[in-house]
Amino acid sequence: MVETLHSLANGFAVALSPEVLMYAFVGCLVGTLVGVLPGVGPLGGISLLLPVTYGLDATSALVLLAGIYYGAMYGGSTTSILMRIPGEAASVMTCIDGYAMTQKGRGGAALAIAAVGSFVAGTLSILGLMLLAPPLAEFALRFGPPENFALMVLGLLVLAYMSSGPITRSLSMAALGLLLGMVGMDTMTGLFRFDYGVSELGDGIGIVPVAVGLFGISEILLSAGRDSKAEIRAPRLRELLPTRQEWRASAAPIGRGTVLGFLIGIIPGPGHVISSFVSYSVERRLSRHPERFGHGAIEGVAGPESANNSATSGAFVPMLALGLPSGAVPAIMLAAMMIHGIAPGPLLMQQQPELFWAVIASMYVGNVVLLILNLPFVGIFVNILRIPYSYLYPALLAFATIGVYSVNSSVVDVWMMAVAGLAGYVLRKLDYEIAPIILGLVLAPMIELSFRQSLAMSAGSYSIFFTHPISAFMLLIGLTLLLLGMRSMFTRAAGPGALMGIEPAAGPGQKQP
Questions:
Q1: Cβ contact 347:337 at 8 Å
Q2: Minimal CA–CA distance to 98: which of 423, 391, 382?
Q3: Residue 397 burial by CB count (10 A; 0-12/13-18/19+): exposed, middle or buried?
Q4: Do 86 and 80 meet the contact criterion of CB atoms below 8 Å apart?
Q5: Alpha helices in 37-57 (DSSP H)
Q6: β-sheet bridge partners, residue 184
Q7: Dihedral (CA of 475, 480, 485, 486) sign
Q8: DSSP 8-state code for residue 228
Q9: What are phi and psi for residue 119, nearest 5 degrees?
Q10: Cα–Cα dist 73/310, whole Å
C-alpha cells in the first residue's frame, strides 16, 4: 500500500506539471464540447484528434485523449437535460427526467447534480481502478461468447422488468431495436442484409441518428403541437442549485451508479450505455415513489450520469492492466499507446510505472477540471431556455441535422433521424417507452455475434449457455425476472378484486352485470 501511494505521488508530480495539466484542461474542454454536439460523441472526437497527438510525448497524448473521453461523457448531459437531445447513446436515460426537471424550472439543479455526480463517480471509480485493476481484469477474462451473450440478454430483461409499464411493452420496444440492429453487414460472413441496395446501410443503422430522432425530433414535434408554451423567464440564483432535499435524494443513486458503472465498464461492450440504463432501472425499482420517474425525479439524473462516468474509468481496467480494449474508444487509445511505442499489457505497470501512474493521476486532475469547467457555466446553459420557441426549435433542428450529418457526411443518416423522429412522436403519443429501442439497437450486433460464436464453439449445441456456470447463472436470473414481470403484469390487469373473485362495482348510470 505504501508503494502504491508513493507511485501515485510520483504520478501527481507528472500530472500537475504545467504541460500535462494544460493537455488535461484542453482534453476536458474539447470533450465537453464534443459531448454537447449531437452525433459526434467521444469516439468521433478522439478519432478526429488522434493525429494531433503524434507530435506529443506518450504521457501528454494519453492524458489528452483520456480527457476527451470522460469530458464527452459529461458533455452529453447538457443538451439531454435542457433540450432532450442526447449528445450520444450514454445520455439517453438522462433525457427522461433531466428534461422533465427543465420543464419544471429545475434544469440548473439537474445540471449541477450531473456535474457533481460525474465528479464523485469519476473520482471513486479511479480509486477502484488504482486498487482493483489486476483482479477485476482477470475476472473479466472469464467472459467468453456465452457469458457475453447471457450478460446482454440479462441487461435487456433487467430494463424490461424495471420499466414502469407492462413488461411486454418494454420487450417489444427492445425487440424493435434488435431488429433494426440486424440491418447491415453480417459480421461473421461479410454478407449484406436488409440494406435494400442502399450502400450507406452497409454499416448498419446509426445509433446517433436514431437517438436524436427518437428523443430530440419527437420532442420538437410534441412541443409544436401544444397549445400553451412554458413561461420564459430569467432563472434565479437559488434555482440553479439543488435544494437540500435534492442533494439527499441524489446521494444514494450516485453511490449505486458509481459501483454499477465501474463493474459493468470492465466487461467488453458498450459499458457506459448499458450501465446508464441499468442504473436508471435500479433507481426506479428501489424508489418509494416510482411514479415520479419520467416526471422529473432527481434520482433519474444522478444515477445514470454517475454510472456512465464511472464506466468510463472501468473501461481503463482491462486496457491498462491486460492490454485488452473493452470498447471502441479504449481500442483507439490502445492504438495511440502503440503508436507511441508503448507495449500495453500486464507488464506496463512494471516496465513504465511513471506512465501508468501519471495517467491515473491525470484522471483525478481531469475530474476536478471538469467540475471547475462545468459548474460555473450552469447559469449560462440554463439561459439558453430564454430564447423564444419560434427561434429555439428551428435552431435545434438545424443543429441536430448538422451534427448527425457530420458523423459520416451522409444524407441517409439525416433521413434516418427524420423517420426515427416521426416514429418517436407516434410511440410517445401511444405511451410507449422508447429508451429500450436504443439499448436493443446498441446490443444487437454484439448479441448476434456472441450467440453465433457460442454455437460455433459447441458445434451447434445450445447447451453451451447452460454448461458455462456464469452464463447459466445470468440466464437463470433473466428467466426469473421475466416470470416475475409477467406475473406482475397479470396481477395489475386483473386487479386485487378480480384475483379474489369479486366483480368491479358498477359506475353511476351503469347497470350491475
A1: no
A2: 382
A3: middle
A4: yes
A5: 41-49
A6: 193
A7: positive
A8: S
A9: -65, -50
A10: 10
